[in-house]
Every structure is written in structure tokens, then in C-alpha cells.
Fold this sequence. Notes:
Elements: H1 15-30, H2 35-45, H3 57-61, H4 66-81
Helix pairs in contact: 1-2
Amino acid sequence: MNTQKYDAFKREPNVEAKEILEAVYLALNNKGYNPMTQIVGYILSGDPTYITSHDNARAIIGRLERDELLEELVRDFLRDVIK
């Protein structure tokens, strides 16, 4: 059995993912939620009720697959860590 290579980090940063995460973060924050825990809950479970419908955030986050959101978060984190 061969090991599969995942080449997500060779791609350019996903601008749409960044914009979506920012919009959802702001909507959650504006409604008084902890955006970090709500977004993590959504990514882990796929349950859209973790995301408020305020400012259309639930529909906005549904535009991308959860793995795409996670890729962007990890890419951004590693970009800050590995310079």
C-alpha cells in the first residue's frame, strides 16, 4: 500500500476561505458568541447550527467544504510559525 501525498499546501491561499472565515467570525462575535469555539464545533461536527444565521453567516460558511476551511486555517497558522 502506498502512502498518499496531500498537496493542498502547494496551492495559493484561498482568498474566498479567508473572506468567509472573517465574515463568519464577525457575525458570531457581533451576536456575543465565542467565534473560536463555534467555528471549531462546526468544522469538527459539520452541524451548521454552530454558526449563527446573523448576517447570513450560516449560508456563507456553507459555500465551502469544511476541509477547505481547515486547510486555510492550518496554512495560515503554519505561515506564521514557519518563516
